[in-house]
Design goal:
The complex is a heteropentamer of chains A (171), B (136), C (169), D (362) and E (376). With 171 residues, chain A is of the alpha/beta class. Chain A is built from 3 helices and 9 strands. The N and C termini of chain A lie far apart (45 Å). In chain E, helix 4 (94-123) runs antiparallel to helix 5 (127-147) and helix 4 (94-123) runs antiparallel to helix 11. The model of chain E has no long low-confidence stretch (mean pLDDT 84). The chains are: A alpha/beta (171), B mainly alpha (136), C mainly alpha (169), D mainly alpha (362), E alpha+beta (376).
């Protein structure tokens, strides 16, 4: 199915308040871009469930979840693939920086659990109703979310020097 | 008797040998104190929980079954040693049947254990783990 | 045979010390290991009685089997490292009385019996004799032992089946 | 009276020498054999010359070309290692365990029939004695694993104990057949029964006892031999039965926490146990000190007996190593299955066959 | 009869453990030998690759990609290069494409050798591991001659490759292909169909098809579960459509579909297919032409936008997601790597419950993780 068809199908099901817009290569204001659909962040859980279980869509694998720091907002980008239908789609959920929250997809795709944990770890996006919402790569007591653009490298962590003095504050 | 004296000497020497070696080693070796050295090895992490816990009773059952067969082996040995003489005395056939009864009784026990799964190690059925069940 | 006597004293002392550890040590795991050594020493005592085969049996069954069973049994108990045998203070006087009575009785018995000291010729090849006795005088006990072992085997399975029901294959 | 002390001194000396040589040679062989099987060279650098230089504090030159002194150098290294006892361990039992393990193994050397007139303790229950005393080492292993308060150690020692006690049964039963044939438990008596040509060896049936008809027992004895060999592999925790110290699972099993010389003692005891296990197989199945060809036996060439015996044992040790570097490791439940469901029924079958042969055929 | 209760023992497996294939920590709760729960802890090798990328030129990122999956550095280079090339619309010269195919298939073999070699090692088979390692050395010699490095090559650049090769080198590659075939047969004899090995690996760690997809299995792991999916075949990138090769899939021939043996066997068979591809590439390649032709001098022409490119590395599908702000910034705004081993490892929690400690090792070995790539 083409991205438009997926978009229309989703819009019929969930309505415009949850499925915001679709972008194609041509229609985008950027030079190059995979087609993607914007989703209302808290609706992610139900949309994901539908995407997986609908026999025409049948997106059975979540390839990748990437967080992006857009400056004012934080975004989670979902790349989905269907082994059954051999088609793929990209979903984007944009949430605000102060109180970032997106509905989890961990109950839909097994792999999402870890990918969302990684996104949380790096961007601090909270995934609502995630069954095991912990940091994954960094220590539990690490402060801040390193991949945010305004992240400041700590000088010390647990008494250990983690940023050399000459690098500190220069970035 | 003297022969057993030799064995005792061997046993005691075995202990002495270890002590002597350790003494030599303690003279030759360097000692560098460091607290971390004396921590238990648990793959580089601080040990969690205790090793001294209530352990799975499967080991106990293996030992129990072993003990039964151990006693059996112990009882077969004198019979086997005496077999030649018993045959010479003309008791061979009787001895054979007497021992057969004894061993067959135990083989029955083994068979019972076998059928009832007493010889199985605690082994999960890897084909029917929880996550596989819902598909079946 | 001064040396033999010396060796006997050595072994006997070893057994006694181990036995004392079994009784008096606070840690149950030490008691278990001491019991193992006690069995080992008893095997030595059998040798002094010219019962070599019995000594071997003692080693094989008691040291290699029963001790291991006891140790496994202890590993099944909780918190072995701080499990200590408690003194039962309420029974002190009564217990002491009983022990003293028993001790007195034993001393009286030992003294009153007219011990016959005889030195029968040691059996040359004890396993053969034991084997023959199994097949003649002690045939019935021998077979009954077989049945007993069967019962033990079945018992082991019954225990095993009950405890890992959830892991039943 | 002097006589017995002299005898003890001689035999003790010889056996200590033997156990050390066996340890050093086996470790060297293990390295070289594994290396050649794996398409590499193994130890190449350390020769005796470089070892001497190292001890004398001179510059160490690469003098060895086949690494002959590698095991010795390792021994020296281990002697200088710091002895670490972890804080959490039960210190008394921790120290006692290697002694028990080594003394248990070393005691079995007392009944090794190296030659007709060189058995340190030629007791009339020799075979039974070796079986019995080797079960003593089990407790040492359990002690080592438990006292180090390490989970890998405890798991390893529990596995090891369960494995060793289980495999005592097939080992014991498989040897009964030979006792039935020879009618003695004395190691000397069993070996003497195999005098002469190699077809008199028990591996080939009972030819030495009853002439040609003894060949009937050939399959039984081969089964017995294999069962014993597998059993002895398992009792000495060798691959493919090395689950107690499976380095990929349990790190090092019951001796995880042991360092330096204490660790070396375990190692030495292990190689000693391998030697004894295979020596029993040689004595019982492969004619002991008899070379199999009467012309080159001790009657004609004095002093050859121990050499023949040790050589045969090392051939079997080679097979043990060969197996180790060829086969993967079994899992603990498969190990128990092999013991209880294959070896024990098979050995009971051979036991009955030999008994029927003894009672009804000859 | 009341059940005799046993305590759960908490064991840390790793980070310093021989079989966790790097610094992975598993917290096991076991009842005797049976694992009750298994919780992986990652991050011991975390270097924040993605943060680094944001301050580096595209060409300077390439050496960092080496260090992700250090066993298959070529394939990582290539995955990144593909993403940047798609973004900039670069046409890579055909010679470079051929060279890329040859070196990354060689690297794929080297990586699979580690995978099945250490898998055998985990089960206790030492010898096949070293026999296979000899072949890996030969591959390293070849790659060293081509790139100048033995492990971290920095060879596949955006738009081309770093160094040219000679026709002698191609002959040597040909020679390697010949010498490799008997070795893999020997490993089959020694290990793959060994009864003990089969009984250890077959029917262990079964991952059925749906679970494999659900938990993001890709590459040999996915194919081991019986799904015929290979990006080189299904979404051919570069010049893979020119080659004739099979996609081996697990069939449950020794046990159940999707068990550890299937995954292991997939890798063994894949190396044979890689040899096929290399042989075809050696025939097709011509040494004419400039390898630096399409390498961009600078990244001023970088368009604004984003791409997500998948490519098949030995561990599965490596996806590179790059967001660029356009020509004004020569560094990626965001670079995310979808690491196949990270995704595959996530299944461990699910399938570990109820197996034995020994099986955990086997399962971990069979999904073939590289911690450098899991943690990045």
């Amino acid at each position: 199915m083409t991205p438009e068809e997926i978009f229309n199908k989703l819009k019929d099901k969930f309505g415009e308040s949850k499925i915001l817009s679709v972008h194609n290569n041509e229609s985008a204001e950027v030079d190059i871009c995979d087609p993607f659909i914007n989703i209302e962040p808290l609706a992610m859980t139900e949309v994901a469930k539908f995407l997986k279980n609908d026999s025409e869509l049948a997106f059975d694998q979540c390839c990748c979840i990437s967080g992006v720091d857009l400056g004012d907002d934080l975004q989670a980008v979902y790349h989905l693939y269907s082994f059954n239908q051999k088609h793929k789609i990209c979903l984007k959920a944009t949430t605000n920086r102060e109180n970032p929250a997106i509905g989890t997809t961990a109950l839909t795709w097994g792999i999402s659990g870890w990918l969302e944990r990684e996104t949380y770890d790096m961007f601090g996006i909270i995934f609502k109703n995630h069954p095991d919402h912990r940091r994954i790569l960094l220590e539990e007591d690490w402060e801040g979310y390193p991949l945010r653009k305004d992240y400041e490298f700590p000088r010390y962590w647990r008494g250990m020097e983690v940023t050399p003095e000459e690098d500190y504050g220069t970035d | 008797m003297e022969q057993y004296g030799v064995i005792l000497a061997f046993f005691i020497f075995g202990l002495v040998f270890v002590v002597a070696n350790l003494t030599i080693a303690s003279i030759l070796s360097k000692k560098i104190k460091s607290q971390q050295k004396f921590e238990l090895y648990e793959c580089g992490e601080v040990a969690e929980g205790d090793a001294w816990i209530r352990f799975n009773n499967r080991f106990y059952l293996i030992a129990l079954v072993f003990l039964v067969f151990d006693v059996e082996v112990v009882m077969i040995y004198p019979w086997a040693v005496a077999l030649n003489e018993m045959i010479a005395e003309g008791n061979g056939v009787f001895a054979f049947w007497a021992m057969s009864v004894f061993v067959v009784i135990l083989i029955l026990g083994l068979a019972y254990d076998w059928i009832k799964g007493g010889l199985e190690w605690v082994k999960p059925n890897l084909l029917q783990l929880d996550y596989l069940k819902k598909d079946a | 045979m001064v040396i033999a006597d010396f060796a006997f004293i050595l072994v006997a002392a070893f057994v006694l010390i181990c036995a004392c550890v079994v009784v008096f040590h606070n840690k149950i795991i030490y008691s278990a290991f001491a019991l193992l050594f006690c069995f080992f020493g008893v095997a030595g005592l059998y040798v002094f009685l010219n019962a070599e085969f019995l000594a071997g049996t003692q080693l094989l069954v008691y040291v290699g089997g029963i001790s291991v069973l006891i140790l496994f049994g202890i590993l099944l108990t909780k918190n072995i490292e701080d499990l200590t045998s408690k003194e039962v203070s309420t029974q002190k006087i009564f217990g002491g009385l009983i022990s003293v009575t028993f001790l007195g009785g034993l001393i009286y018995m030992v003294n009153s019996v007219d011990w016959k000291v005889s030195t029968p010729k040691p059996i040359e090849n004890s396993p053969v004799e034991i084997g023959k006795l199994f097949m003649s005088d002690f045939l019935i006990p021998f077979e009954i032992a077989g049945v007993l072992l069967l019962v033990a085997l079945i018992g082991a399975v019954v225990i095993g089946r009950d405890t890992d029901k959830d892991l039943e294959v | 009276m002097d006589n017995i002390f002299l005898w003890i001194a001689i035999t003790l000396g010889a056996m200590v020498g033997l156990v050390s040589v066996v340890g050093i040679v086996s470790i060297y062989l293990e390295r070289k054999i594994s290396a050649f099987m794996q398409d590499r060279l193994g130890p190449m650098e350390v020769g005796f010359g470089s070892l001497v230089n190292a001890i004398a504090g001179k510059e160490v030159l690469r003098e060895g070309r086949i690494g002959l002194a590698q095991s010795l150098a390792d021994g020296l290294k281990l002697l200088q290692k710091e002895d670490i006892i972890p804080d959490g361990a039960d210190k008394f039992l921790f120290k006692l365990a290697p002694m028990i393990v080594f003394a248990g193994t070393f005691s079995t050397f007392a009944a090794l029939p190296l030659a007709e007139y060189f058995i340190p303790a030629d007791v009339n229950i020799g075979l039974f004695y070796i079986l019995a005393i080797s079960s003593f080492g089990v407790s040492g292993i359990l002690m080592a694993g438990w006292s180090s308060n390490n989970k890998w150690g405890l798991l390893g020692s529990l596995r090891s104990t369960a494995q060793m006690v289980s495999y005592e049964i097939p080992v014991g039963v498989s040897l009964v057949s030979i006792v039935m044939l020879t009618g003695t438990l004395s190691m000397k008596g069993i070996v003497v029964a195999q005098e002469g040509w190699f077809w008199n060896w028990h591996l080939f049936g009972a030819v030495g006892h009853h002439g040609l008809i003894g060949f009937v027992l050939l399959p039984m004895m081969v089964i017995n031999f294999i069962a014993y060999f597998i059993g002895s592999l398992a009792e000495t925790n060798r691959a493919p039965f090395d689950i107690p110290e499976a380095e990929s699972e349990l790190v090092a099993g019951y001796h995880t926490e042991y360092t330096g010389m204490r660790f070396a003692i375990f190692f030495l005891a292990e190689y000693g146990a391998i030697f004894v296990g295979n020596a029993i197989a040689v004595a019982l199945f492969l004619g002991g000190w008899y070379s199999g060809i009467p012309a080159i036996d001790q009657a004609n060439i004095p002093g050859i007996a121990p050499l023949v015996f040790i050589l045969k044992t090392f051939v079997l040790i080679f097979v043990v190593m060969w197996i180790r570097w060829t086969l993967p490791r079994l899992r603990v439940d498969q190990l128990m299955t092999l013991c209880w469901k294959y070896l024990i029924p098979f050995t009971l079958f051979t036991f009955f066959s030999v008994a029927i042969y003894k009672v009804f055929i000859v | 009869m009341e059940q005799i209760k046993t305590d759960l023992m908490t064991i840390n497996m790793g980070p310093q453990h021989p079989s966790t294939h790097g610094v992975l920590r598993l917290e096991l709760k076991t009842d005797g030998e049976i694992v009750d729960s298994c919780r992986p802890y990652l991050g011991y090798l975390h270097r924040c690759f993605e943060k680094h990328c944001e301050s580096l030129d595209y060409l300077k990122i390439v050496p960092f990609t080496d260090r992700m999956d250090y066993l298959a550095a070529m394939n990582n280079n290539w995955a990144f290069a593909l993403a940047v090339e798609k973004m900039m619309g670069i046409e890579v010269p055909e010679k470079c494409e051929y060279l890329r195919v040859i070196v990354s298939e060689l690297n794929r073999i080297a990586s699979h050798i580690i995978a099945f070699g250490t898998f055998g090692l985990d089960i206790g088979a030492f010898t096949p591991f070293l026999l296979a390692f000899n072949q890996r050395e030969l591959i390293f010699d070849l790659l060293e001659e081509a790139s100048g490095a033995r492990m971290l090559y920095n060879y596949i650049w955006v738009g081309g490759v770093a160094r040219d090769v000679t026709s002698e080198w191609l002959k040597k590659v040909k020679g390697f292909c010949e010498s490799y075939k008997p070795v893999i047969n020997e490993i089959d004899d020694l290990l793959s169909y060994n009864k003990i090995f089969v009984s250890r690996a077959a029917n262990v760690g079964i991952v059925p098809k749906d679970l494999a997809i659900d938990y993001g299995f890709t590459g040999p792991n996915l194919r081991g579960s019986g799904i015929e999916f290979d990006l080189r075949k299904d979404e051919p990138y570069s010049i893979y459509d020119k080659f004739d090769f099979d996609v081996p899939i697990g069939s449950g021939e020794e046990g159940t579909l999707g068990d550890c043996w299937d995954r292991y066997m997939c890798r063994i068979r894949e190396t044979r297919e890689s040899i096929k591809i290399i042989e075809q590439a050696l025939e097709g390649i011509s040494l004419e032409g400039d390898i630096y032709e399409a390498v961009p001098k600078n990244f001023n022409k970088m368009p604004k936008g984003e791409v997500y490119v998948r490519s098949e590395t030995p561990r599965g599908e490596m996806g590179i997601y790059i967001v660029s702000e356009g020509g004004k910034a020569p560094t990626p705004y965001r670079c995310k790597v979808r690491s196949p081993a990270f995704c595959a490892l996530s299944i461990l929690e699910k399938i570990a419950k109820g197996v034995m400690i020994s099986d955990i090792i086997v399962i971990l070995g069979s999904i073939d993780i590289v911690l450098g790539e899991v943690d990045r």
